Amino acid sequence: MPITSSRIARQILSLTPHNGHIPSGLDGVTLMRANATVAPTPVLQEPTIVIMGQGLKRGYLGDEVFHYQPGQYLIVAVPMHFNCDTVVCGDGPMLALAVRVDMSTISELLSKMNLSTMPGIDAPKRGMVVADLDDAMNDTVYRLLQALASPDEVRVLGPQLVRELHYRVLQGAGGECLRALLAWHGRYGSIYRACEHIRVNYSQDLDIATLAREAAMSPSVFHQSFKTVTGNSPIQYLKAIRLHRARELILYAGKGVAQAAYAVGYVSASQFSREFKRLFAYSPTEATCHIGEHAAVHLLSPG
């Protein structure tokens, strides 16, 4: 009997007793439930596979809108900054499963796969793509959700099921962006390295020339390629990383506004406050008042 989206939704519902992001007991795997519609919010998303069980999520990247709903999944191949909202449809909550992309698993699987037998699908323009679930992937997702209900099964079977899910994604229509990512000489691999460099060194004085060298590109080609893949210029992306990190320091580490600003690389607290409000629509001093609105109803931020 084929696994349907409604069966996947029921299984997620049984594992999510409350609103928010719910740890699964398996590293890199998170269950998501939203009981009410949530307006677009800036998110900083690590490479992740998000499988929809119920409801609708939308990612806004410039003029593009990425809709993903039951029967579909989102692949984020490189760390991305975009706006995301959640729509509750009908009587039930939004339900989804998020699995962090493990690059070492992707590399290991690709080394064993015969890529020449895969359908010739062009790599998507952006670093994220929406794809349809096929029967094989539905089956893998459902068995993973069943394992999450048992502490013994999640320990014994969970890692192998996550590996199988990576394999199913690589085989599917949305897997080309991940396959391209591991071609380190290509655009995706170069931009991924640059994104990782920014993510680790965001507090340093980074410029286009430095980042282009990291990507092994000329500054002009790097700038255009980076914007094509991520939807942001390198400087916009760096600024977003800094502001998200500063927000975490204010909310969860108890840092003051000036402390957080300097910690992430700003030299002017006033400029930091202006840019923070422009991104989040509230000031840094108001951030703690908004913590409930952002209590894990959207995608996962990188650690």
Automatic annotation (TrEMBL):
HTH araC/xylS-type domain sequence ranges: 192-290
Claim: Transcription regulation is one of the keywords in the record: yes
Pfam family for this entry, one: AraC_N
Keyword vocabulary terms for this entry: DNA-binding, Transcription, Transcription regulation
GO molecular function, one term: DNA-binding transcription factor activity
InterPro entries associated with the record: Homeodomain-like_sf, HTH_AraC, HTH_AraC-typ_CS, Tscrpt_reg_HTH_AraC_N
The protein's name in its UniProt record: AraC family transcriptional regulator
Organism the protein comes from: Iodobacter ciconiae
